């Protein structure tokens, strides 16, 4: 999968150039609200087109699942290979000049993630992984943090922002974890937050209701950096449900315990 990883890197860097080049003109961008608090800009679409063009030239028969466009049609739908793309994760941040956004690209084969790239064009940071080959940040190996106590941790999360999300259930988990950690951060790009878990900058992460393109690349990068990723019940439905918990193996179990108790208490009230 190294060849595919190099294609993903090339595509992410090209998309990153477009994103950075247009930072100074965000006030004039064409912006569309897909749903309440969920925006897409012309830069999302332009970056997506660049990524897909690069992948198509190298792998014309592969399927592509991209934010804003969904599955490709035709013969690509029968492919065992699927690219999962978020051309600009953190669009709201980008439109407000808040410096936390990225490009996320993953490849899975027969439903198993094989390669993942997350690129932060502002900092020039490239997080990569291919199955069985570990994870890197700018070509240097990275590992998840080695902490074993929740009390010492800095966790990342994402607040509910779409209509229909269960805010009370989320707040219960936030309350449970915020009382037993060193701090919680909500930066607004789940993909980049997951990359930070892989690099040990965050000790863990949890969020509910994400899309597969938000988390696919980050999941593999964390796993290749020695971490665990799953759903709040400890299962493996996170790519389908978008409900995700990620940390090193010890903290992963402690976070699951806290989230489970919080959700149980919320359901009983």
Portion of residues within helices: 25-40%
Q: Write out the strand line-up for the largest beta sheet, numbering strands in chain order.
A: 4-3-5-6-7-8-9-10
β-strand percent reads 25-35%
The coarse silhouette is globular
Uncertain stretches of 5 or more adjacent residues:
30-39
Query: Treating each run of at least 4 consecutive H or I residues as one helix, how many helices?
Result: 8
Please tally the β strands and state the result.
15
Mean pLDDT across residues: 89
The biggest beta sheet is recorded as:
8 strands, mixed
Can you walk me through this structure?
It contains 8 helices and 15 strands. It is of the alpha+beta class and 269 residues long. An 8-stranded mixed sheet has the order 4-3-5-6-7-8-9-10, with helices on both faces. A hairpin with a 2-residue loop joins strand 6 and strand 7. Helix 4 packs across helix 8. It is globular and about 50 Å long.
